[in-house]
Amino acid sequence: MSSQPAVPGTASDRRRWIALAIVMTAAFMDLVDVTIVNIAIPSMERDLGASFGAIQWITAGYALAFAAGLITGGRLGDIYGRKRLFLLGITGFTLASALCGFAANEEMLVASRLLQGATAAMMVPQVLSIIHVTFPAHERGKVFGMFGAIIGLGAVSGPLLGALLTQWNLFGLEWRPIFLINLPVGIAGLILGRKYITESRAPKALKLDLVGVALVTLGLLMLIYPLTRGRELGWPLWGHLCMAGSLLVFAAFVAYEKRKTRKDGSPLVELSLFKVKSFAAGIAVQLTFGIACGIFFLVWTLYMQIGLGWSPLRAGLTGVPFSIAVSAAAGLSVQKLVPRFGRKVLQAGAVTMAAGLLLYIWEAGRYGSAIHSWQMALPLVVMGVGMGLIVAPLTDAVLSDVPREHSGSASGLINTTMQMGNALGLGLVSVVFFGSIDDRIAPSAVGKAFGEAFQNSLWWVVAVLAVIFLVMFALPTRPKQHVEGAEVLEEPEPALAH
């Protein structure tokens, strides 16, 4: 089983470009599956009679399972073969998508989403690893550029595709086609992947740390589950004890990881990385930024479709200026701005995003339920520009001072932390959004109540961005320039598609 790049100009040269198309399609499918769901949430709520707690778990459950399995998924690929894990992951993801599409009730849908997140964690980390071993160093810049374009396309097309599939109500299936569309794509990826992807393994793969995975997952569940269900259950005592107990579980995780490092040098999390000031700060930024995104995207959908009564298609089209602004600003920040202005670009992004949110809060209060899509365009473009200035250069800034031999572990941890923050933000929606809505709200008052809850939630996001701005002072003034950017990826860098 060779892990050497194919030699250009041969039959294998064509095979590797087909392999690239396969893994990029899988990454695209995963990204779209995250963004496509938000727009269909009100339809799921009506069709299944799902509670708001279940709605949060449909999104947070995926993020939690994905985050918990990312680093382990990458290690399994290193040990047992990236092609093998990719094919297992895409098979599981396709089956989980079918279960989601045919879910008979909210419990089955939440369980299927957890399975989908776990199988995505097997599939996604292999994508960059397969690219890394399939293409020689001089071609990787072009390949990663194509990968970035696919990510941008997924960010724009996901909400629109979800809106169209939900609006069309194909065969009377309501929201279900957003999951069922994965079936033909997944089956094709499995068949072609078996034929065209070359198997590879890491020469010195780290051992698995399943105890570490179990402790992190338990700690997150103890924190997020009471947050999600607390309001519906009247904030019971066990919920507060559970959240307090999660701190003890995280402390036990740190102690175990230290012991694991001494024992065999293969912990789930390389704790020595946190001695690097810029990395520790960057992880804090990723976590808080994930919280901000988790809160905003869910409450935005609920506000437009339930509060304002808009159709999924109108809500999806309203978000197009935001997606375009993110993609444009992301490209500009990496190529032009960061090399010249360094850390200030990321801080300007936090300030710009906060300015867009404040403008949105003002408009939502000023126009109420009479607000139009075109009136939202300006705050969404300003927010999108701010987000683009942050998301694209952040990973480079965080990895800037990390020792080269730990770059793979560090990049995996960065993306895992972002997913954990996202799951936590989705859990907090019950506090910052539903916490300000009366349980027995009259139908005529829904618009006003959801509008006020939306504004309240955005104030929380502004506060989180203020924290992000301050923490960014610990990032390096200017990220170090790597001679060959792709060479940093000695191990898989999971979840770039998120």
Task: For this entry, give a set of tags.
498 residues; 16 helices; 77% helix; disordered C terminus; mainly alpha
How would you describe this protein?
- The protein is mainly alpha-helical.
- The protein is 77% helix and 0% strand.
- The chain has 16 helices and no strands.
- It has helices at 11-48, 52-80, 82-101, 106-134, 137-168, 177-180, 182-196, 210-233, 237-264, 277-307, 312-318, 320-341, 343-367, 373-399, 407-432, 446-471.
- The chain starts with 10 loop residues before the first helix and ends in a 27-residue tail after the last helix.
Please describe the topology of this protein.
Elements: H1 11-48, H2 52-80, H3 82-101, H4 106-134, H5 137-168, H6 177-180, H7 182-196, H8 210-233, H9 237-264, H10 277-307, H11 312-318, H12 320-341, H13 343-367, H14 373-399, H15 407-432, H16 446-471
Helix pairs in contact: 1-2, 1-4, 1-5, 1-7, 1-10, 2-3, 2-4, 2-8, 2-15, 3-4, 3-7, 5-11, 5-12, 8-9, 8-15, 10-14, 10-15, 10-16, 11-14, 12-13, 12-14, 13-14, 13-16
